[in-house]
Write a structure and sequence with these properties.
This protein is α/β, with parallel strands linked by helices. The chain is about 40% helix and about 15% strand. The strands form two sheets. A seven-stranded parallel beta sheet has the order 3-2-1-4-5-6-7, with helices on both faces. It has a six-stranded parallel beta sheet with strand order 10-9-8-11-12-13, with helices on both faces. The longest helix is centred in the N-terminal third of the chain and has 18 residues, at about 55-75.
Length: about 375
């Protein structure tokens, strides 16, 4: 089935879930519509982006009227109009697109009306920011509500995000929870380094890296050999490094900066504990269901994290990891300590791997996504 993947940016190596859809959905017969193109097309697909192209005088004159009409009709002025709309329509026709999958709700806003005009079924995938932070933007909840009847179906990486949308009056009768998943054939456990911990992710408020560091240092006191590797870059990297230096703990914490996915996978394979103190940011931004946690479980890591967003949907407390409330630094330290001193760590690690194989195998999840799309279109 010829599919168009609509995404904000192409190609971003870190967006493994989107890249997998581009590469493999319905046998790889995909095209891409993106807001920004970064100059790489590793999957050799047809792609469309319009940013940076000239806007003719006629469209410049038409813009205030077209955006005003779109705001009234659709709740947003972000829809393509004039030449941009004609070019996008021509691309979809030329590529013989049979179904559109918008990888974020905010992207679906821009393409659902045109999809309806062309008779192309359109689905949206909610992944995190689009069903949390975006809901605090004044027009987005109303625009989503108007968009829902125009969609053939909705997917979300967690029930938490669907509940978030429903709390703002945004629901769809054909909604499904399908996590991003992990390649469990590639992410596998290896021989574990005793008392090894790993934190992966952007060094930003939502990941609370300073809380993670302080909690680890408190938990690992008098535990010889305990070590934390930190992978990621961002605005809180320098403060994090300063915190460790001030504590004189450079021998216990290693900062690797941003690293390729293969590096992360190799670290996860030999790491015993995965730490992620996710919180709701001040602007309302949340996780959906972190891919890194799914990858950690596939590698047999025991997760210490928070009761945040979809994380409790992945981590079974007492079976595959430990969870605490957001911002509970003392509780997080206690959970890390409990994890590192637990007697049944090997059994829990095997359980984490089994759960990943059962719930998060991305091949099974892709097949489920394709099945729902086919059944929906068939109806």
């Amino acid at each position: 089935m010829r599919t168009c993947i609509v995404t904000g940016e192409y190609h971003l190596p870190g967006e493994t879930f989107i890249n997998r859809h581009i590469q493999h959905i319905f046998g790889g017969a995909a095209a891409v519509v993106c807001g920004r193109y970064h100059g790489e097309n590793p999957y050799d697909v047809a792609y469309f982006y319009r940013r940076g192209r000239e806007t003719g005088l006629g469209d410049q004159l038409l813009m205030p009227f077209a955006m005003g009409v779109n705001r009234l009709k659709h709740g947003t002025g972000r829809l393509p109009f004039g030449r941009a709309k004609r070019e996008l329509k021509a691309f979809l026709e030329e590529q013989r697109i049979e179904v559109i999958l918008a990888e974020f709700g905010t992207q679906a806003l821009a393409v659902a009306p045109l999809a309806n005009e062309m008779g192309i079924p359109c689905f949206s995938y909610f992944r995190g920011t689009d069903a949390s932070k975006a809901l605090n933007q004044g027009n987005i909840p109303a625009a989503y509500a108007k968009m829902m009847p125009r969609l053939a179906g909705v997917f979300s990486v967690s029930q938490f995000l669907l509940d978030n949308l429903a709390a703002r009056g945004v629901t769809h009768p054909n909604a499904h929870v399908i996590p991003s998943g992990v390649n469990v054939r590639l992410f596998q456990p290896s021989e574990k380094r005793a008392l090894s911990c790993l934190a992966v992710g952007r060094m930003v408020e939502k990941k609370a890296p300073l809380v993670t560091l302080r909690a680890f240092l408190a938990a690992s006191e008098e535990l010889e050999g305990a070590h934390l590797d930190v992978i990621g870059d961002g605005p809180l990297l320098a403060p994090a490094q300063a915190l460790v230096a001030e504590a004189g703990a450079e021998d216990k914490v290693t900062f690797h900066g941003a690293q390729p996915h293969d590096f992360v996978r190799e670290k996860l394979a030999t790491t015993e504990f995965f730490l992620q103190h996710s919180i709701t940011a001040a602007n309302g931004n949340t996780e959906g269901l972190p891919t890194a946690i799914q990858e950690a479980m596939a590698c047999g890591c025991l997760t210490v994290s928070t009761r945040h967003a979809g994380i409790p949907e992945a981590v079974d407390e007492g079976r595959t990891g430990w969870l605490v409330d957001e911002h509970d630094e003392a509780g997080f330290a206690g959970a890390i300590r409990a994890a590192m001193t637990a007697e049944n760590r090997a059994a829990m690690a095997r359980e984490a791997r089994e759960v990943a194989e059962e719930r998060f195998d991305n091949q099974k999840l892709l097949e489920k996504l394709e099945r729902v799309i086919r059944e929906t279109i068939g109806r």
